[in-house]
Every structure is written in structure tokens, then in C-alpha cells.
Amino acid sequence: MDWNFDDSYTRLPEPFFTRVRPTPVKAPVIVVLNRRLAEALGLDAQAPMGPEAAGMLAGNRRHPSSRPIAQAYAGHQFGHFTLLGDGRAHLLGEHLTPDGQRLDVQLKGSGVTPYSRRGDGRAALGPMLRECLVAEAMHGFGIPTTRGLAVVATGETVFRETPLPGAILTRVASSHIRVGTFEFAAALDAGVDIPGHSAPRAADGTYTRALADYTVWRHYPALIGEPTRYADLLRTVMERQAALVAAWMRVGFVHGVMNTDNMTVSGETIDFGPCAFVEQYDPATVFSSIDVQGRYAFGNQGRMAQWNLARFAETLLPLLDADPKAALAIAEQMIGEFPALFERHFQTAMRSKLGLGNEEPDDPALIASLLDWMHRSRADYTNTFRDLSSRVAMEDPQRANPGFGRPDFMAWHARWTARLARQPAHFEEAALRMRGANPAVIPRNHRVEEAISAAVEAGDLTPTQRLLDILADPCSETLDGSDYRQLPTRDQQVHETFCGT
After folding, report:
1. Kind and range of the H or E element at 367?
2. Contact indicator for 177, 208 with CB cutoff of 8 Å
């Protein structure tokens, strides 16, 4: 694998990372390889992936340009601040692609680090396959996301509730800089006692400034040298997160663990633990076994993004203004703008789902009425919108979906078609817009569980590979008749998902 690694992150002060190599595993074998991603990275996607490549993707072998590190960060986990770090991950380096991209390449499940907190540093095959599957779906939906390049079986057993086959995921990201990374910098500036580090207190925000300047250089170079660059950084990250979470809502995605250490400043989706997709529409939907209070329920994701961004803004206070009161006023004003910003992105996403190419004042009410009908009718979120995405549904809705024949839906349908008729585009153009916004297939929870069970219990990767192939183009019209659109039977329903750490 012809990597071209750089390590710009290590130019930050040393408390932000520790140099540490992955722990070799017994018998690494590549079980999933994302050749589409390999090609995009400028790697030889068709080369045989034998023992040499498997050894490199397991951490047994080091590429000459790689100088592995584990990154330190903090985070609010379900509202509680904690010092964290890569407890089972190693950043191999930043791969420079032929087209000029700089992308982190990280191994996940690759052994203990100074941040392992008594963990074993390993990962099980099932959760690594889940991350690979859901991340590829997000990419297929056109949503910014980290992606899985490969899953390597280690030939070793990890012990959770039961013994499980071990695996390592190769994750590719624009970067792994999180809101929690800024919280770690702010903790350093505040002189918080961090085991293994004796950093002096820096009330002027020395560590935060170094991280912010690096983030601007890495992700937002247009801000370099601007006198308001730190406020602009906050505003830009807010914009990215509003667009990201609205995109999640468009496809019914429930992240499950929206802690601040799981929010990137690049605006990419990261850490697919107990994530899942809404089926019967309900804004209160929760799948995560650890989210007992519904903090990160489907309908709460916009509010939780604002909460996380408020924590981000707090870290930037010393950089926003030398006067603490003025800095706080700037931050409060900006964070207070987030609900309207998110609502704008949400309405744009939902308009696309209904084929609306322009704006009218009553659009939010039209969208809310459909969601209310779906909630009352226990309608499937994905299939409802996909079934609406045709000229047939516009003219004879009951032919598209028998449930559309109900009087309350027909009343909404009359409002919707009248609204479509008032916009310049023809119905055919509206249907085309809708088919790009409404996937035919999502990684339904029972399908993901079937694929994982086949791999873990029988060593059969065929269901995983088939699902990956389908999710590469989930809006394709060829999938309208796919069995992957079928709803789970009562016995197949998945009501709870797990982190799998």
C-alpha cells in the first residue's frame, strides 16, 4: 500500500498526542476492503491484498513514512466532562492524495495506548463491520463522513460479555480534531492536572490558540490572517454542524452518542457506535442501550448539536476578546443564532425530500403536517418519502402506497400537489429532485445485524459485501424493487443497539 504520510498534527505541543506504535496481532487477514475508497486515495485498488497489506492494516508492519501517534482529547459524555484520548486507536499519519487532499488514516482496535483507561485496546469484528457499513451508507447519501478503508480480522479473541473475534478498522477522515480536542486544550490552559503531563497554566489560551490556528490551517485556510478568525472559526463550525445534523435528519439517522468527543470540527460524521436508522417515524426514537434518558433521541439531535457547540465556544473565549465579558457576549450571541441556522438547514433538507425547489412561507407547516401524519400512522420514514418520489404518487398516491389512500393523507396530498404546481419546475423535475434526496435503501437495523451475525458466527462476509455494494448508490432507481426495502418482521425488529467497545 503506497502511502504518502505526513504528520503535521505532531507540530502541536506534545500534550496533544503521544508517540506509540500499534500492538501486533496474531494472524491478520483482510476481510473487507473498500476498493472504491482505495482508488480515491490514489492507492492501487486492484492490487492483491495479501499478508503484507494485512500486516500494515493491522499495525504489525509500519510504512516508512508513518510515525504513529495516539491523540489526546477530552469530552462531555452524556453531559459529564471527562479526560479521554485514543484508548484503542493509532493515527498512522496524514495521507497526501494525488489530488492534494490531506486525510487522516487511523487504526481502530490496534492496541493499548496511554489513554486506554484499563481497557484492552482492542475491538470486536461486529462493531467494526457496523462502522464500515453505516459510514459507507452515509457517503452514499452524500453526507460528510469518516469512512472505513478496511476491516482486518486479527486471529485473536476479545472478551466482552462473551468471547468475540477481534478486528481492526482502518478509518479515513478529514481529521480527528473534535470539540473534545478543544476541551482538552482549554483544560491544559486552565492548568487541570492531566496524568503524564505537567503543562503550566496558560490563562491567555496558549494551547487553545495553537490548536485553533492549526485547525484553521488544516480545514479553513481562507481564515488565515483574518483579525476575526477565531469568531469566524466558531461560525463556520456551527454552519457545518447545522448542515450535517440536518442531513442526518433527512435520511432518518440516529447517531446515538452525540458526546462532544464525537463531534468533529470539520463537520464529518464520526464514531458509529450504537447508531441506527428510524423506521416507524417517531422523533423520540432512541436505539442506544446507554441513552436511557433519551438525550440523543432522533428529534433532539439539533438541540444537542447546539449544546456541544456551546462547549466549543467556551473553549474559544480567551481568543474571542481580551475582555472576558465581551468574549462571553460574542459567544452567547453566536450560539443563540444556532436554532435558526439549524432550522434553515432542516427546512432545506425537507424541501428537497418533497421536491420543493423554491420557498414559500407555509412550507414548514406542510412539512410538519406530513411528519405528524407519519407519526400517527406509524409510517416507515424511508419508504414513505421514497414512495412519494414519483409522478405516480403525485397523480394517484394509493397506487404508490396503499397507506396513502387514507382521507387524512389525501387532504395533505392535495396541499402538497397544489404547492408543487405553484413552483416553476414541472412535476417530473420535482420527482427527480426527490429521488436524489430520498434513498430507496438504508442500512436497516435488522439487515446490519444479519450481516454482522453471519460474519461473526459463521465467518460469512457475503451479506456484508452485498450490503456495502448496495449502499454505494442507495438512491438508485434499480433498488426500488429491492428486498432491502422490505420492513423487518416482528421477530427481526431491532429495538436496542450497543456501543460494542
Report:
1. helix 363-377
2. no
In 3D, which of 495, 451, 488, 458 has the Cα closest to residue 126? 451
pLDDT of residue 203: 65
In-domain check, residue 151: yes
| Residue 200: predicted pLDDT | 65
Q: Dig out the grid coordinates for 145 from the structure.
A: 463522513
Rounded Cα gap, residues 36 and 140, in angstroms: 12
The one catalytic residue in 86, 104, 189, 261 is 261
Backbone φ/ψ region at 20: left (φ over 0), alpha (ψ -120 to 50), beta: beta
Residue 38 contacts residue 74 (beta carbons within 8 Å): no
* CA dist., res. 87 & res. 196, Å (int): 15
pLDDT number for residue 49: 77
Secondary structure of residue 451 in the 3-state scheme? helix
User: Euclidean distance between the first and final Cα of the chain, in Å?
Assistant: 28
Kindly report the average pLDDT of the chain as a whole number: 95
User: Is 491 known to be catalytic?
Assistant: no
Residue 98 domain-assigned (yes or no): yes
Residue-level pLDDT at 304: 98
The secondary structure of 134-189 as a DSSP string is HHHHHHHTT--B-EEEEEEEEEEEEESSSEEEEEEEEEEES---BHHHHHHHHHHH
Q: Which residues of 190-202 are buried (b: 16+ CB within 10 A; e: fewer)?
A: eeeebeeeebeeb
Residue with cell 439549524: 342
Are 469 and 251 in contact by the 8 Å Cβ rule? The answer is: no
Q: What is the pLDDT of residues 141-155, one digit of tens each?
A: 999 999 999 999 999
Instruction: Count the domains in the chain.
Output: 2
Residue 136 located in a structural domain = yes
Of 437, 454, 479, which one is at a domain's C-terminal end? 437
Domain membership of residue 375 as a residue range: 354-437
Note the pLDDT of residue 428: 87
Rounded-to-integer distance, Cα 49 and Cα 372, Å: 50
Q: Which of 132, 167, 184 is the last residue of a domain?
A: 184
pTM over 0.90: yes
Tell me, yes or no, whether 375 lies in a domain.
yes
